[in-house]
Every structure is written in structure tokens, then in C-alpha cells.
């Protein structure tokens, strides 16, 4: 049995359709889906804005590697290519947490190390799980509160779009 938090991102092509492809790919194990957010790019800033969202998923059969593999299969379905670190992509599925699992394996770092600094993950996650805790780092809502205002403001909820 495991429960995972997944971050979805897209900034190439039909961004909403790619996020929906991912949501459909997890529909059998879906617990909750956030709203869709339009977000300013971080890392490589000279690229189009992203759509981001978070899924909470749970399955009696899955371990952390199963979540990673299913996400990677969906990235392939979205014809994702790997050209540049932090560069444009049709679909990114990151495993943010799996229960309290800690992993230093470079193929699956858990919790995902970028999480405390990424408003694009923390804001949608706090929306679906207001009491959530990032293992070892504290409450997600408090981590959000520590980010610079302009980063949080760069994560804009799209009221006219929905994942499901
Ligand atoms: N928690 C994780 N979730 C998803 N992939 C991970 C995780 N930890 C390590 N990886 C590994 O990261 C590798 C590269 O992933 P990817 O190209 O999506 O990185 P990125 O999205 O550009 O950067 P970042 O991981 O900082 O968001 C994959 O081969 C995958 O095995
Ligand atoms: N706003 C935003 N910026 C990014 C994102 C993302 O999901 N959202 N993902 C990246 C590579 O993982 C690089 N930059």
C-alpha cells in the first residue's frame, strides 16, 4: 500500500491535453487532483509558461518505483523528448513524495529534492492537502509561506480549466 504525491507539468503543444493524459493515466488510483495553474518558468526562464498540477494517488499494490515507472510511461505517451535540463517538455511527471519514504537513489530521489523551493509544486499541493507535511521539512503551507511573494504570485490558478 502506498500513497504518492505527483507533480505534473507541461509547456509544449496542447499543455492541458498533456496534463489530462497524465490524469487519465492515474484515474484508477486517483485520490485527489488539484486545479490547473499557469506558472512562470523557473530554472530556464527563457521558455514558455507551464501548466502545472498535482495529483494524490494511492494503491495497495504500488511501491515508489511503480509510481515512477507509470509516470515515465505517460511521459513517453506524450512523446516527451529529453533535450535540455529544465527545458521545454510536453509532459513531466515528478514523484514528489511516497508516504515517508526517503531515497538517495539518483533514479528516484525521495522526497523530490526540488520541492521546498518550488511554488509550482507547493501551491497546488497545499490546495488539495492543506495539512500535508513534506517529510523532514515541515508543513507544505508553511514552506509556501517562506517563498518569495513574487514566486507564489507567479503560480496563477486557471479557473476556466480543469484536469478531469
Ligand atoms: N522523485 C523523482 N521523480 C521523478 N524522476 C526522478 C525522481 N528522482 C530522480 N528522478 C530521475 O530524474 C531523471 C530525470 O528527470 P527529468 O528529466 O524529468 O528531470 P527534470 O524534470 O528536468 O528536473 P527535476 O528532476 O529537477 O524536476 C529521471 O531519469 C528519473 O529517474
Ligand atoms: N513553472 C515551471 N517551471 C519549470 C517546470 C515546471 O513544471 N513549472 N519544470 C521544469 C523542469 O522540471 C523547469 N521549469
UniProtKB/TrEMBL annotation:
Protein name: 2-amino-4-hydroxy-6-hydroxymethyldihydropteridine diphosphokinase
Keyword flag ATP-binding: yes
CDD domains: HPPK (cd00483)
Catalytic activity: 6-hydroxymethyl-7,8-dihydropterin + ATP = (7,8-dihydropterin-6-yl)methyl diphosphate + AMP + H(+)
Gene3D superfamilies documented for this protein: 7,8-Dihydro-6-hydroxymethylpterin-pyrophosphokinase HPPK
Top EC class for this record: transferase
EC assignment: 2.7.6.3
Stored SUPFAM superfamilies: 6-hydroxymethyl-7,8-dihydropterin pyrophosphokinase, HPPK (SSF55083)
7,8-dihydro-6-hydroxymethylpterin-pyrophosphokinase domain boundaries: 85-96
Gene Ontology terms for molecular function: 2-amino-4-hydroxy-6-hydroxymethyldihydropteridine diphosphokinase activity; ATP binding; kinase activity
GO annotation terms (biological process): folic acid biosynthetic process; tetrahydrofolate biosynthetic process
Alphabetized Pfam families for the sequence: HPPK
NCBIfam families assigned to the protein according to its UniProt record, in alphabetical order: folK
